[in-house]
Amino acid sequence: MSDVHIRVSQLTMAYGSRVIQRDLDFDIMKGDIFVIMGGSGCGKSTLLKHMLGLLSPASGDILFNGESLVSASAQQRDRMRQRWGITYQSGGLFSAMTLAENIALPLQLYTQYSAADRDDIIAYKLALVGLAGYQDFYPSEISGGMRKRAALARAIALEPEILFFDEPSAGLDPISSSLLDELIVQLQQSTGATVVMVTHELPSIFAIANNSVYLDAKTKTMIAYGDPRELRDHSDQAVVRQFLAREASAAVEEPL
Fold it and tell me: Where is the ABC transporter domain (predicted)?
């Protein structure tokens, strides 16, 4: 139990009377790179929003280090969120702010660092994601891949113990996507953070994930849980094997 970082317990998600997923029950261990996967419309992003406390479940609970998110007070939730870093599909940077100003926001809100100390932290975080010297650039002045990395620099500003990603590779070319995957792994290894990611990108899933859950839109529940490589090769659910092997033949036939 001590190594369980996040526990999703008998979680049912619904919009009014329409059930999205029911009876979700899985653990995310400390240091996992955990992927939430499944076909379109299965509820992947909805689950992430529940885990972030943006939506309330119809029933069940989500626990962080044994502490309930569902029953937590607003003050307790705020304290929990200070230990998280979050990046959104679009990057979520404020367009009217420079990269330095974007990264400074959580430092200004939640720490007592001096302006000089903040500047040092900002420079260090940008260097970690390969953007040294880009403090004064605006999001519109850099590429999509660079914006994703800048958003990651902001997400790690407070040394979070959990990093959440919503489709981090969306809109990126394969090379930029692969570089972002490598960066996520490097950051996880250097910080020990637990990573939770929504993605349908197979290269990313197999490159970085060591644990996963598969949400099924038809049955409205999870039908597989574990290492995605094991699920691809040995799952007793044909739909899971097909999902995880769907590009295998194309990859084999791709010309050099």
Answer: 6-244
Residue 210, classified by CB atoms within 10 Å of its CB into exposed (0-12), middle (13-18) or buried (19+), is: middle
For the packed helices 115-128 and 144-155, what is the interaxial angle rounded to 10 degrees? 130
* HSE-up of residue 179 (Cα within 13 Å, Cβ side): 13
Residue 172 to residue 144: CA distance in whole angstroms = 7
How many other CB atoms are there within 10 angstroms of residue 202's CB atom?
18
- By CB atoms closer than 10 A (0-12, 13-18, 19+), residue 240 is buried
* Residue 174 CB coordination number (10 Å): 10
| CATH number of this structure's domain 31-51+73-247, picked from the four choices 3.40.140.10, 2.160.10.10, 2.40.240.20, 3.40.50.300 | 3.40.50.300
Q: Note down pLDDT in tens along the chain; length 256 residues.
A: 469 999 999 999 999 999 999 999 999 999 999 999 999 899 999 999 999 999 999 999 999 999 999 999 999 999 999 899 998 776 789 999 999 999 999 999 889 999 999 999 999 999 999 999 999 999 999 998 899 999 999 999 999 999 999 988 888 888 888 988 999 999 899 889 999 999 988 999 999 999 999 999 999 999 999 999 999 999 999 999 999 997 654 444 444 4
